[in-house]
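Example (one chain per record):
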Amino acid sequence: MFRPKLPDVPSLPTPPVTPQQMQAPVPSPGRPVAPYVGIGAGAVAAVVVVGIVLTALLAALAVSAVSVAIAAVVLRSLVSSAHQR
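Predicted structure:
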């Protein structure tokens, strides 16, 4: 009594689905792809090598800076203790 009556939704006819076969595109014979792949791999290798070298140089610089700072603190303490005696 208190429930509204909803109209029935008509179902739409669905067209039959036919499976389609996908074909891979045929590469054009005028332009080879292999030389571009070789250049790209060489460029990536060069960037990786340069990155490794720069990282190693930065690490060496940081270690050198820390060792110089420690040597400066030790020398300063030696000089100050010599002046107090």
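Caption: Residues 38 and 76 are 57 Å apart (CA to CA).
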